[in-house]
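User:
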Amino acid sequence: MAAMRVTARIPRGVWILGFVSLLMDISSEMIHSLLPLYLTVGLGASALAVGFIEGVAEASALIVKVFSGTLSDRLRKRKSIVAFGYGLAAISKPLFALATGPVLVFAARFIDRIGKGIRGAPRDALIADLTPEEIRGAAFGLRQSLDTVGGFAGPLLATALMLAWSDNFRAVFWVAVIPAALSFLLIVLAVREPAPAQPEPRPDGQPVRLDRHTLRALGPAFWGVSAAGAALTLARFSEAFLILRADTLGLEMAYAPLVLVTMNLVYTVVAYPAGRLADRIGPRAPLFAGIACLVGADIVLALANGLAALAAGTVLWGLHMGVTQGLLSAMVAHAAPAQLRGTAFGFFSLASGAAMLAASVLAGALWHYVGPEATFWAGAALAALSFAIAGLATRSAP
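Assistant: Predicted structure:
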């Protein structure tokens, strides 16, 4: 009953934004769950190329959030920026089906992630604007849970279609265009942001813009959360390497998306309760538990010699994601000044973006030159190091 009362207080707009994310994630994960094998098996690319494409694409998305977040703070019109980002991602989907080589795949992935970057920070700031402070952990957890339903529904649908259509990658990619278009229509037609307000100045009274005064106004608590998030992202490379690991352990190509189904199913189940728990006891203990799950996942996947170990490592990876991702968003919303939330989410993502680029390129290089086991041992070492960094960076958190 307590859970039902908390859920009832979450604003309608947060639920709708969750379903917008769900539809786009179905589309994206239908493609991304097959993309590593499409590149390596279908188009002849190397694991190093996969790491480069994933790292550049994801880092680009995270870096773009800085500018879209600050623009949404300045204009106080977040919905239009969010809708543009979803529209750009929807436009990119047909390019995956049309690609005949890695270059067009890279272009499509880049456009898709730029769209994600444009929408990400304003959307998270809009959720914070809509939600009372005492239930922000639950609200961000709910949004993450709905988003992650798409994260396992997309790969599950991709698996079914691959089996039905004899491993026809392009046909699956064309189907993925449909939920992307529906996501864009839902954000345009159904989401309402709070009543328009005059643009709010920074704490020093000046208009919001990207300069050193804005960076200083974000405050040490925010920069501590950003350091913790960057350390954790550096330890967690792209999930594309989970799919490649499944291939090395003998999982048939048509069933490869089930790796992401498993991970995202765990993520979905855990994210909302983890957010509620953080609202109740504070963020530090759940954050450290999430990091421990990542260390365990990397060790299990490094030592794996069969599909049972693959499943165990994937479940631990999903636990890590479910505990930490919504939690970090709620910590950013709590630490940043209200009038700089969009900028804060943008800079948080910039720090994570640099770490994601380094992590994915490092993972691809280790995989290519040393072997799959080395990739996961390196991830375990970096995750263990992030314990100390997160502890120092968040020591002022409740």
